[in-house]
Amino acid sequence: FTSTRESIIKYTVPYGQPCHLISLTSPNLPMNFVKKKVSNVTSMGHKEVLSDPWRITAKSGWNEEELLQFRKEIMAYEGPESTDIKFFNVLLLGQVSAGKSSIINTIETAFRGDEMVTNKAVAGGADKSKSLTKELRRYNMREGNVQFWDTMGLEVESEGLDIRKVEMIMDGKVKNNATLEGTLDQEFVREAPKIKDKMHCLIFAVHSRNFAALDENVLGKLKKIRSAANKRDIPCLVVCTAVDLVCAHVEKDASKVFYSQDIQKMMTMVSERSGFTLNMVFPQRNYVNETVTQLNINFLAMLLFKQIVKVSRDTCERLIDDESDSD
């Protein structure tokens, strides 16, 4: 450090979250204060990758042959026989600007196997503090037998999507394109929903780099929604987006995600703070800047997509059994 009247320090907090430049203008600022502040920060993604993965996956070849096998396995998951369930309903929730819409686009891109990135769901916005999505929007993946339902982001208690509306969506009572701000229009309320209308899986999207600073009110909302889902036996997964901003190795090569100490540490933190077990927390690198697909980003997305489809099918079977028991 210099002895000049003004020193400028730029640093990065854990998990790569950038901070504002700090101006130390006081000539009498104690040196131990400066040392203490700097000693508490770490730089992003410089740890060496592990020799063995911290999570074992069913497929680990990260090649086109395994991607093709993923697609065949996912297409084989269909609604239970003798039912009118054509699609598994997957509800996307999460903090504002966590990349919910980008998850849909990335999974769609990976599953279709096209060279170009899909932009079916509208993603991004100028104001990162407010939700771009204002309605309940359905996005069909017909060959994958899945309907993703995109929602407003979870904001502080008095703003954003409220828990009562989420419960109605889970129960299949809210129709596609319903405006989620204010009071629900009765035209978009379904009075007698069937199993095909209910949600079969919930995804909580969190931003890997920003989750540590997530507002406690928003975190509280997430936990209340999870509790409501548990009462309905709807499985919930946490998807940590933007993992490439946490680890420099993964930024270069998404196949390093399960060898990254930085990703493992971040996901452990998300698990502990959210209350989800670690095996229900999944890393995700979305297509954001890319226009052409990458094999390893596709592979990571398909690992997630297969898990989503599997638990959704299990939910449908359980709901059908419960309905049969009540007859």
Commentary on this structure:
- The longest helix is centred in the C-terminal third of the chain and has 32 residues, at 295-326.
- The chain is of the alpha/beta class and 327 residues long.
- The radius of gyration is 22 Å and the shape is globular.
- The relative contact order is 0.18.
- The termini are far apart.
- 33% of the residues lie in helices and 12% in strands.
- It has helices spanning 31-39, 64-75, 100-112, 163-170, 216-231, 248-252, 261-274, 295-326, and strands spanning 7-9, 22-24, 88-94, 137-141, 146-150, 201-207, 236-241, 281-283.
- The chain has a six-stranded mixed β-sheet with strand order 4-5-3-6-7-8, sandwiched between helices. The protein has a two-stranded antiparallel sheet with strand order 1-2.
- It is built from eight helices and eight strands, in the order E-E-H-H-E-H-E-E-H-E-H-E-H-H-E-H.
- Helix 3 (100-112) packs across helix 8 (295-326).
- Strand 6, helix 5 (216-231) and strand 7 form a beta-alpha-beta unit.
Keywords:
6-stranded mixed β-sheet, alpha/beta, 12% strand, single chain, two-stranded antiparallel ribbon
Topology summary:
Elements (H helix, E strand, L loop, with lengths): L6 E3 L12 E3 L6 H9 L24 H12 L12 E7 L5 H13 L24 E5 L4 E5 L12 H8 L30 E7 L8 H16 L4 E6 L6 H5 L8 H14 L6 E3 L11 H32 L1
Parallel strand pairs: 3-5, 3-6, 6-7, 7-8
Antiparallel strand pairs: 1-2, 4-5
Helix pairs in contact: 2-8, 3-8, 4-5
